Task: inverse folding
């Protein structure tokens, strides 16, 4: 397209329409008038993302990848003996081991909370259908996934499902500025609401302005009515900063999330909530404090000094 006055006006008009749709979508929430368009986009583009992921990464899941790793090693070793092929093979095996560790850790987390989960793989990162912190996973309505289901991994809360296609789903990450989740402090049970801040710590508004909170305290999800969009007891993060209360009704704290949102791979969608609140049982064991070494100094008297009890 040539750089003409008409083309510039068209570009400005398209940008204005895009921002208008974003505003309407955000204000509409679950009743957004563009939800139907987003659903259609997930249906159309979801299989494409899934297919691209399969083409780029033929390993469908961590268990199958590790199970087939040895046989693949034998076949490659027979056909290629150069260092480049060897390094590529070892890199693949390392990734498989990493994914198996992720899967094992996630299953332990789900077992501790008694969450029924559907395992999934992150196949796309970014705002494929909007301007939010999102990822696309390779399970959808055909796998029993519904909107407003909790998503977690072996570390803790990942986010919630926002859009579902037949074979894929979009997950809004917990660090997104539009993301809010009810939280509960470990032991003290103080309640608050955590909001995402992108690559910065989560901002949590505590309901009790006089709550006694310190760095290192830990939070879990409080849970939602009918367990949607959040089931209770999922680890959220650790307090990294506490603002002075100043006599306000609420108190602001900042929480470093357990989940590394830039390294997501294997996740689980909670398709069955626990029968009872797991409380703090899903939180990882607290690290043991490192003992401070003590040094004992023994003074040895010199030969010129008299020894007690003897006559000089």
Result:
């Amino acid at each position: 397209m040539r750089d003409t006055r008409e083309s510039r006006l068209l570009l400005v008009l398209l940008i204005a329409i895009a921002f208008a749709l974003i505003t309407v979508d955000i204000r509409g929430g679950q009743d957004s008038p563009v939800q139907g368009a987003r659903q259609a986009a997930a249906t159309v583009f979801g299989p494409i993302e899934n297919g691209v992921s399969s083409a780029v990464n033929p390993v469908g899941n961590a268990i199958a990848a590790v199970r087939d790793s040895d046989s693949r090693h034998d076949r490659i070793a027979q056909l290629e003996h150069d260092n480049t092929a060897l390094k590529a093979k070892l890199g693949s095996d390392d990734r498989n081991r990493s994914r198996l560790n992720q899967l094992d850790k996630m299953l332990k987390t789900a077992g501790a909370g008694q969450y029924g989960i559907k395992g999934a793989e992150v196949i796309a990162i970014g705002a494929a259908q909007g301007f939010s912190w999102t990822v696309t996973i390779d399970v959808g309505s055909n796998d029993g996934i519904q909107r407003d289901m909790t998503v977690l991994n072996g570390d803790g809360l990942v986010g919630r499902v926002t859009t579902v296609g037949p074979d894929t789903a979009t997950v809004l990450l917990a660090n997104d500025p539009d993301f809010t989740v009810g939280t509960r402090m470990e032991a003290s049970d103080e309640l608050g609401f955590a909001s995402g801040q992108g690559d910065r710590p989560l901002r949590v508004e505590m309901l009790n302005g006089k709550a006694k909170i310190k760095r290192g305290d830990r939070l879990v999800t409080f849970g939602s009515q009918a367990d949607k969009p959040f089931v209770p007891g999922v680890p959220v993060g650790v307090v990294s900063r506490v603002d002075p209360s100043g006599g306000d009704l609420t108190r602001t704290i900042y929480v470093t999330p357990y989940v590394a949102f830039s390294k997501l791979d294997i996740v689980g969608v909670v398709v069955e909530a626990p029968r009872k609140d797991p409380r703090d049982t899903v939180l990882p064991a607290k690290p043991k404090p490192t003992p401070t070494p003590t040094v004992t100094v023994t003074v040895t008297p010199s030969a010129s000094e008299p020894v007690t009890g003897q006559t000089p």
Observations:
- Helices lie at 5-28, 35-56, 62-67, 69-79, 83-113.
- The chain has five helices and twelve strands.
- The longest strand covers residues 116-125.
- The mean pLDDT is 78.
